[in-house]
Amino acid sequence: ELEKSRDKLEERVVERTNELQSSEERFRALVNNLDSLVYVADFNSYELLFINEYGRKIWGDVVGRVCWQALQSGQQGPCEFCTNNRLLDDNGEPLGVFVWEFQNTVDGEWYECRDQAIRWPDGRYVRMEIATNVTRRKLSEAALAAEKERLAVTLRSIGDGVITTDIKGRIVLINKVAEKLTGWRNEEAEGRPLAEVFNIVSEVTQEQCENPVEKVLSTGAIIGLANHTSLIARDGRQISIADSGAPIRDKNSEIIGVVLVFRDITDKLRMEQELTKVKKLESIGVLAGGIAHDFNNILVAVLGNIELSLFDDQLTLNTKKLLEEAKNATYRARDLTQQLLTFAKGGEPVREAASLADVVKESADFILRGTKVACRYNFPADLWLADIDKGQISQVVQNIILNAGQAMPNGGIIEVCCENIQAPAALSRFLRQGERYVKMTVRDCGIGIPADIIDKIFDPYISTKQQGSGLGLAITHSIISKHGGHITVASTMGSGTVFTVYLPAAAQSSTAGEEIKKAEHAVKKSRVMIMDDEEPIRVMTQAMLARMGHEVVLAKEGGEAVRLYSEAMTSKAPIDLAIVDLTIPGGMGGKEAAQKILALDPQAKIIVSSGYSTDPVMASYQKYGFCGTLVKPYRFVDLAAAISKVLEKA
């Protein structure tokens, strides 16, 4: 009986052993066919107790070796990321599975490792690791991360605002520019409906605009915003924008979202508006210049004949009074044409010795007419003549006085002073040291200029007023600079503003009053040719010249003037001086005639005359061979002074 029991026990042992062997073989077959590394190591000695076929192909049959020596390269101790202390609790019981990743130093591949404590056949707990190669996934993730970073860098670098949404119109991402324009940070905007962050209205009607995302999703097309669209920022700011929206499609061309690209065009629109204003002013300038030219031609005859009439000793006092009033009215008409020429802004100044006091008073009184503001003048009797273009300096005075008057909406007094000075050392960067200048100071008691604007007050498009082009003081600065002068400004908020202008004094030391007397009595008697297409001007100028004692030759246009000058050269009565009109409609003008006369006689003395003082030839007359200029309408004394100046040099 005992024998039978023993035999049965042996059979069971054999059967059990076979089962275990079969189970182990199945386990090994399963583990060895895994496309992952599987190994078992002792917790204390780090001895490798098992490694599957996958591991043996890479690291060899390393069972019995220390894991960190067999599976890693160049290490002096256990891996710092070893999971031994993470798999058992304080009582030595398993804690479960620990998942981690590392890059192996032998093959350079990335592995996702799943470590856990298992019971080994001898009863101890050991560490089992299943490590799956995830290198491809890591490379894909790295490529995706790099692509995402490139996209982020691109979005950050784009100067336009960018917003992307999902298929439901919820915000996925906004870049930094969009954050700045909308007032929403990306973290705050993410997941919100587009309309909540990107609130757009019509600038004209202030009505809500159609949601661009909805339009893109419904049409599947690229769309643009209508003109005059404004973005209402989170803080209530209204910003003019231009915008486009486009669908985002996946690899199957299915729409998965929308991208909006928009930019702030507030400055662009303002510049376009200012450019339109400038072009309008230029158009007005061309028209005004033409009107002024024709009107000045008329005024030459009117003013000249009135002055000639006043020389008649037989006139009654009443008649003289009436003629003086007519002459003064003509002066006012001349001032009006000067205002027209102000719009036809010329380039280089046509400079002459002139009384700055007269220009200042005439210009200031004109601009303040009908306002509650008046000027108080302080001009010394010995004020030097200034070397200026009277028309351009008139524009300077008007711009400064206009600004001063607008700074005093309730009225008041503007103090205007002129004085003779030598260039101060403090302004050596701007003025010629040792040279003479006429200084003009304009002081108002207005609201003042803000400190943050005063340094930019002469920049184009800078203005402290709601109305206006912002060009007046920029033009003023340009004119003063072209005259070789300088302008400064000082202001205190609530107390007023002071503009100071420095203009070169004329070379002659005479005062304005002395210059007039000199011109009237110091004219050398000569033979003078007048070339002008207007008969009233020829007749009137001939009478003026005859009264001065000159012999006069008349020509209607350039061809006749050249012929008469040539004939005079061969006679015993050569022409000492020619005064030619710059523009002759349908005939040869003064510039061409002067060239032909100078070809005949390089020593010829020629004065150019025009009612359009802003013409470049008038500004740079010497460049074209002329000896002087005579701006229409001219007075008797102006004509005498121009002739005297040229003939005295001869």
Descriptive notes:
- This protein is an alpha+beta fold and 650 residues long.
- It has 4 domains: 22-137, 2-Layer Sandwich (Beta-Lactamase); 158-264, PAS domain (Beta-Lactamase, 2-Layer Sandwich); 345-504, Heat Shock Protein 90; 520-649, Rossmann fold.
- It has 21 helices and 24 strands.
- The strands form 5 sheets. Strands 6, 7, 8, 9, 10, 11 and 12 form a 7-stranded antiparallel sheet that branches.
- The chain is rod-shaped and about 180 Å long.
Using brief descriptors, characterize the structure shown.
650 residues; alpha+beta; Beta-Lactamase; Heat Shock Protein 90; 4 domains; 7-stranded antiparallel beta sheet; 5-stranded antiparallel beta sheet
Q: Structural class from helices and strands?
A: alpha+beta
Number of helical stretches of at least 4 residues: 21
Number of domains: 4
Shape: rod-shaped
Describe what is shown at a glance:
By secondary structure, this protein is an alpha+beta fold. Strands 6, 7, 8, 9, 10, 11 and 12 form a seven-stranded antiparallel beta sheet that branches. A five-stranded antiparallel beta sheet has the order 2-1-5-4-3.
